[in-house]
Structures are given as C-alpha cells and as structure tokens.
Write a structure and sequence with these properties.
This protein is an all-alpha fold. Helices cover about 85% and strands about 0% of the residues. It starts with a helix and ends with a helix.
Amino acid sequence: MMGMIKKDLLMIKNNYKMLIITFILFIFYSFMFEVDMSFFLPFMGLMVCISTINYDEYNHWHTYAISLPQGRINVVKSKYLTTIGLTLVLAIISFSISFLLMNSRDAIKIDESFSAILGELLAIIFMMSVLFPVLFKFGYEKGRMAMILIGVGMFGIVYLFQNLFQLEISTSFLSFLETYLPVIFIVLSVVMLIISYFISKKIYLKREF
C-alpha cells in the first residue's frame, strides 16, 4: 500500500504548477480583497487528488494494481489516505495564513474563525465521502457529470436552507453546538469517511477492468 501512496504523491508532485498557482491566488485574494479564502487550498488539494484517478485510468493502472496481493483493497485505501493527508496539510497551511492575516488586521475572532474552519473542513470531507464512491463506480470520465450534479445539488440544498426555510434555532442548541463542536466535527468526519470507504471498497471489489 505504501508503494501506491508514493505513486499518488508522485503524480500530485507533477501537478506542482497547479498547486503553486492555487497558492498564489490564495495569497492574492486574501491580501488584496480581505476575503476569507481558507477553504481554497484544501479544496484544490481534494481536486488534485481526484485527478489522480483520471491518470490511473489513462495509464491503465487498475489492470496492474488488481493483480497485486490485496491490490483492490489497497487501491481504495491508499487513495483515501493520500487525499486525507494532503487535504489536512493544506488545511493547516491555509488556516495558519488566514489566522495571521486576520491577526494583522486586528479582526481576529478566535471562536468564529475556529467554527468556520471546522465547517469548511466538514464540507470538504463530505464532498470527498460522496465523490469517491461515485468515481470508483463509474470512473473519472463518466463520473464527471455526477460530480457536477452533486456540486449543484449541494449548492441547492444550502440555498434552500438559507432562503426558503426560515428555521429558528434555540440558543440552548447553539450553545450546545459551540461547546461540543470539535467532538461533533470529529465524529461526523470519521463516520462519513468510514461509510464512504466501505462503499468504495465494495464497489471496487466488484468492478470489472
């Protein structure tokens, strides 16, 4: 499995130009427009990791990988571990820079910033959890349309909750969320990733190449 992780990291390394451009845009918008772009780097990290699935298919990697001992299981496992690792590293870098920028502007609000960070990470983990089973099922080319539909669907759900459903949330519930937010984040993230991983593994074990 470590060999498969190294293979994914090497493919990601070949996309260093995209990551550099992403980092430059992140710094530019954060400085010039004072926009919170803390989600941008980890999101692009997720997209770069997803692109490795396309490279795998283009180079017929799956035909070779499934011939290895535990090959199918390790393909799925390595893809999840690589994506989680890169996303967390980029998230730490991104949020650290955003934290310093807000501090330099005397606009820092630790509680609000921490809540926003966890919310953004949870959204990225949710996207990963939904997209990976789809990509393992249909492949990158056929899965692109599904990715677009999922993105539009997520936007539509957020829009409905923000504009159509005027929900009144009690202060006690908000207080509960603020108190246990890290625990809630960890539990939801782990549950989503575990469910997603087992679905992806089941799909990939049955997929024909």
